[in-house]
TrEMBL record, chains A, B:
Residue sites binding ATP per the record: T53, P54, A55, G56, E57, G58, K59, T60
EC primary class: ligase
CDD domains per UniProt: FTHFS
Catalytic reactions on record: (6S)-5,6,7,8-tetrahydrofolate + formate + ATP = (6R)-10-formyltetrahydrofolate + ADP + phosphate
Organism: Paenibacillus stellifer
UniProt keyword annotation of Chaperone present: no
EC number(s) per entry: 6.3.4.3
Signal peptide residues on this chain, from the entry's feature table: none
Name of this chain's protein: Formate--tetrahydrofolate ligase
Length: 544, 544
């Protein structure tokens, strides 16, 4: 691992613009932006994937490997990634910093507290929660309806027992009411942090967040609780992007990490903007598969920030396609050409979808030991038939060297003149049902959208509040194009059931809830935390 | 504000031992300890106070001012302070970094997230909480009794609504049971962090913490939940002391901040040990007045860490003594010699008490504008009569220069040969009721101790568990020597009611609960958070 000051210097960042967190992590000071802001932007490349499967597709790994490979191929490339959330790291998932020879480091520090950004979001969120309950307790001047507080509490921990709780029990302990905790990455403040353009925009967005309704049914926003300045103060360091490096010394901006279902699932706009000034190419990722992650990246993040991606890389694996071809988890290791060919329909549809945004597509076949040559070749052949570039990536085993073929394909794609003519899927002025309809029909390929009575009431309220032009953030199972997790491959003709629509007014979108979305994960029988070890020198094993 | 690297260099700390957090904060790496450990220790001075009053005594301010003054007087002095807790900063209290010309800086950063230590305690604590509930949910192999889980959850926020809650509601969301949140500084992990000598000791202590009882009534400790390694990993940076500076560039180690009622209320042992190797003199403080703070400093911290204080500084103010003389809060500004003379009994008793630990005492009269000369003189005269050194401190108005007289008195005290012959108040081998009795009779001057039925049951359990030799940590109102907040001055003949005795086995003490102890504060009508402002450059006002 090299000193972060050296990595910064090579990236063109003077030491005076670094706020060091130890020797290997740094925040980028706002003074750097003053120096960078008039430079031309590099080219933005989104790494996305087919629908996720239990086998793991390696999207983060491929993003890191591709950034390493691009640098090896002579293109100054910066990666822009999300911050891992502590809860899942200690729960089901282990670390989230890549793996093999495509990792960001110091992995353990990044996986645990990193530079404290997520803790700052937790504090800001829970300050508002405490001020809401205190407001009611101290006389409730705003006439808040305790039964209609929509602002919950958050912790960065997987703790199912906190999903639904009753608070305020006992004499003098506030007002008894139902509430609950979400994981911090599900906080609207995380989405706000990731979409804001600076501290002033952060403040404005925090003020617009909906906390609940008063007894007359009128919405009450956070600015009414006098908490916005204090929340912004708690977030003043968290809005600054973090610089770390890959195992090969590639600069990586790791900043923000909102949920990919009830939020948009992309790293921060601020971090992406810095990266675009620092690299000729910026490689970034979005949550889940392209039906959710890429759609929101394009329709929410890029639209709000005025960004235009130049290419999309679609990560596929032999196992993911076989799984989408109907093979159960336990049998994915055996070659099965028929299942693979059936599963290609999933890849094909994602490619078609990505092209709808006017962005050229490159398929990255993330190679695993044990992939049969015939299966690999079948994927490459399919891409050729579809007229889409494709390359094998062996970033896990070989790091940047294993991604050189992919890097060369990406360079070709980016060099082609006017390859990308980016446009979001839907127009701002469409009403919310039409926006949902467009996503369901053009991306998911469902036949219809059905709105529950609750969703219809929410739509009527949104209309009444004059918020009909909000963007939409789809909260849907990631495992299927549809809202039914077991409908794999490339289903059609289904109806998407909209259960409810909630408002993230600070983030600027209406969250469209389909299926049951868990915003507070639980721990499994054997949590990842049990595998962690630390020796007397403070060296960890078992996490990343 | 000077660069922390400069302050470190002047203190004899090479840059290679610093882990920077921005330009003005640093953690001290364990490598420094290797270099320091064989050096002789400096002299340890405890700053404590008369019973706290609504007027504020300025203990932290005086500690900082004294450290500044000692350096001005040519004695290389390091201060060792507690970390402010975010909850109270945003609640009732505002910042906790001193004030006027005796402050530690960067005050806003120290008051908010600082270097993340308290957040790390929150994470480690709540990981154990989640693993307990998950253990029960996944089959409860340890046969834990859900009604007898003593391990709660924590947040660093003032939020009364979380004091008593019901968790686990709803299908698949765990086991329904009563629980609650404490503020993070009340976590036993904070006490453990502050008492441990290194990472190995931390781990051992975390493993001993009591989480609850099984259905056969047997205690279950944290090591049974397989969470100790992960908790230690989460705390691996938090165990490293933090270096900052005062407004005059005096080095200050700010590390740890446990509650002063259910815990011992002192900054970390590790931080104190580093400071003792770096300064000829180390000035440190303990929570609340001397009846709680100094007693626990001597009987818990010094005993466990093998430290021997060379002197105690007792902070008094004209207003605090008048308040203890029976004058209500609103009338403290008017001179009132009779009330002052009555209140001197409080000071006198604290002096007597401190001497029982074999430590010479120096009275620091923290001077406020508006103190009448006659009142000031009356205090100085009283000290003379008692044969105790005393000096006026004007650290708020004048910084170190205003504490020079106090510094000279302290130097004299420390120069006197064999001035201190420190011994804790009670012997390790006394049983718990005898230890409590000794504190109540010799420090509080109560006539008797009454144990509630619950306390008697707890005592019997402690005896049965073979834990009779634990130290005791008194949880009592700070406002009176007695357990009745309104019994000011120097009361006698009262009975202390012990409601319950709980176990902090990782910290190594039994917590003796008298009165009702609130471990989760609430927000006032107008929280301090509402006064906070942040401008577009990220500069804060209204906090410190």
């Amino acid at each position: 691992m090299r000193l972060i000051t050296e990595i910064a210097a090579e990236t063109g960042i003077g030491e005076e613009h670094l706020e060091l967190y130890g020797k290997y992590k740094a925040k980028l000071a706002p003074s750097l932006w003053q120096e960078l802001k008039d430079r031309p932007n590099g080219k933005l490349v989104l790494v996305t994937a087919v629908n996720p499967t239990p086998a793991g597709e390696g999207k983060t790994l491929t993003t890191i490997g591709l950034a390493q490979a691009m640098n090896k191929a002579g293109v100054k490339t910066v990666a822009a990634l999300r911050e891992p959330s502590l809860g899942p790291c200690l729960g089901m998932k282990g670390g989230a910093t890549g793996s093999g020879k495509a990792q960001i480091v110091p992995a353990d520090d990044i996986n645990l507290h990193f530079t404290g950004d997520i803790h700052a979001v937790t504090s800001a969120h829970n300050l508002l929660s405490a001020m809401i309950d205190n407001h009611i307790f101290q006389g409730n001047e705003l006439n808040l309806d305790p039964q209609r507080i929509v602002w919950k509490r958050v912790l960065d921990m997987n703790d199912r027992s906190l999903r639904n709780i009753v608070t305020g029990l006992g004499d003098g302990n506030g007002v008894v009411r139902e509430s609950g905790f979400q994981i911090t990455t599900a906080s609207e403040i995380m989405a706000v942090l990731c979409l804001c353009s600076d501290l002033s925009d952060l403040k404005a967005r925090l003020g617009r967040m909906l906390v609940g309704y008063d007894r007359e049914g009128k919405p009450v926003t956070a600015d009414r609780l006098n908490a916005v300045e204090a929340m912004s103060a708690l977030l003043k360091e968290a809005v600054k992007p973090n610089l770390v490096q890959t195992l090969e010394g590639t600069p990586v901006i790791v900043h923000g990490g909102p949920f990919a279902n009830i939020a948009h699932g992309c790293s921060s706009v601020i971090g992406t903007r810095y990266a675009l000034k620092l690299g000729e190419v910026v490689v970034t990722e979005a949550g889940f598969g392209a039906d959710l992650g890429a759609e929101k990246f394009m329709d929410i993040k890029c639209r709000q920030a005025g960004l235009a991606p130049s290419a999309a890389v679609l990560v596929v694996t032999v196992k993911a396609l076989k799984y989408n071809g109907g093979i159960p988890k336990g049998e994915l290791y055996a070659p099965n050409r028929a299942a693979l060919l059936a599963g290609l329909a999933n890849m094909e549809r994602h490619i078609e979808n990505l092209r709808k945004f006017g962005v050229p597509v490159l398929v990255a076949l993330n190679h695993f030991e044990g992939d049969s040559e015939a299966e690999v070749q079948a994927i490459i052949d399919a891409c050729r038939r579809l007229g889409v570039s494709a390359a094998i990536s062996k970033a896990w085993a070989e790091g940047g060297a294993g991604g050189l073929e992919l890097a060369e394909e990406l360079k070709k794609l980016l060099d082609r003149e006017s390859a990308a003519e980016f446009a979001p899927l839907y127009e701002d002025q469409l009403d919310i049902p039409s926006k949902i309809g467009k996503i369901v029909k053009e991306i998911y390929r469902g036949a219809e959208v059905a709105f529950s009575p609750a969703a219809k009431r929410s739509l009527a309220l949104i209309e009444r509040l004059g918020l009909g032009e909000l963007q939409v953030c789809m909260a849907k199972t990631p495992y299927s194009f549809s809202d039914q997790p077991r409908l794999l491959g490339a289903p059609e003709g289904f109806t998407v059931q909209v259960r409810d629509i909630t408002l993230s007014l600070g983030a600027g979108f209406a969250v469209v809830i389909t299926g049951s979305i868990v915003t507070m994960p639980g721990l499994p029988v054997k949590p990842a935390a049990e595998e962690l070890r630390i020796d007397e020198d403070g060296v960890l094993t078992g996490l990343a």
